[in-house]
Amino acid sequence: MAAILTARNISKCFAAPGASVVRALSGVNADIQEGRVVCFRGRSGSGKTTLINILGALDTPTEGTVTFGGEDITAFSEAKRDRLRRYEMAFVFQSVALIGSMTAFENVELAMRLAGVPAAQRAKRVSECLARVGLERRSGHRPAELSGGEQQRVAIARAICHKPKVIFADEPTAELDTVTGLAVMKLFRDLAEEGGHTIVMTTHDEAMMESADVTYTLEDGEITSTGG
Ligand SMILES: Nc1ncnc2c1ncn2[C@@H]1O[C@H](COP(=O)(O)OP(=O)(O)OP(=O)(O)O)[C@@H](O)[C@H]1O
Ligand SMILES: [Mg+2]
């Protein structure tokens, strides 16, 4: 099967204070197949966030190319990258960043409005997405009235509402206990297997990697092993 997302010889340098340069990634290659859960693991500072940001078109590499659906997205204009992120991709972060004054339903609905889903379709789709993450009975709750794992599930409902091809998740389980983190991983597995979504995530938690199809290990900005 063809890869939906590929990284070819990706390097990233950041300008650091003074004249120095931080080389966050060097020569990274990866082939991400559609419908898989792919995990990048590594210590703090190994380059996980830098890489996932480049794969998700939030940042550009210093060298190398990223292709999405066969197209070189590193050559895209800012506007085209913006559209790609908005319509084909979704992002889930470590800290959940729901809007505190809005209910779970309203948080998901807002994302759908921003993604241009017509008003007439929204309510049904919000309910479907909340049901998908097992929160149909919490739709009227505000974030403060939800557990950490439930908040992350609302964030995932928000991420899947516009049917993205790829969901990028940077340390999505880092603030959760192991049991809750594993429940989030199970949800990612189901989204990959039943929904055809591709999940690209980072973690430093060994327990979470069991749920991944492929695990890449990053050390000092290089991929040192691939398993799965
Ligand atoms: N904007 C930046 N400017 C300069 N250096 C940066 C910048 N962003 C990241 N770095 C450096 O690049 C390296 C990789 O950082 P990155 O955030 O990708 O690591 P990480 O694996 O996600 O770590 P963590 O597990 O702590 O989130 C680190 O040495 C970091 O200090
Ligand atoms: Mg990080």
Describe it:
It is a single chain. The protein is α/β, with parallel strands linked by helices and 228 residues long. The protein has one domain (3-227): 3-Layer(aba) Sandwich (Rossmann fold). It has seven helices and ten strands. The strands form two sheets. A six-stranded mixed β-sheet has the order 6-7-8-3-9-10, with helices on both faces. The protein has a four-stranded antiparallel β-sheet with strand order 2-1-4-5, covered by helices on one side. Strand 9 and strand 10 (222-227) form a beta hairpin. Helix 5 (148-160) packs parallel to helix 6. The longest helix has 18 residues, at 178-195. It is globular, with a radius of gyration of 18 Å. The model has no long low-confidence stretch (mean pLDDT 92). Bound molecules: adenosine-5'-triphosphate (ATP) and magnesium ion.
CATH superfamily: P-loop containing nucleotide triphosphate hydrolases
Strand order within the widest sheet? 6-7-8-3-9-10
Number of domains: 1
User: Roughly how many Å is the radius of gyration?
Assistant: 18 Å
Question: What's the average pLDDT?
Answer: 92
Helix vs. strand class: alpha/beta
Cofactors and ligands: adenosine-5'-triphosphate, magnesium ion
Strand content: 25-35%
Based on the structure given, which CATH architecture is correct?
3-Layer(aba) Sandwich
CATH fold-level name: Rossmann fold
Low-confidence runs of at least 5 consecutive residues:
none
**Straight-line distance between termini:** 16 Å
> What is the C-level CATH assignment?
Alpha Beta
- Helical content band: 25-40%
The tally of strands reads 10
Shape by Cα distribution: globular
What is the H/E string?
EEEHEEHEHHHEHEHEE
User: The biggest beta sheet, please?
Assistant: 6 strands, mixed
Summed up, the helix count is 7
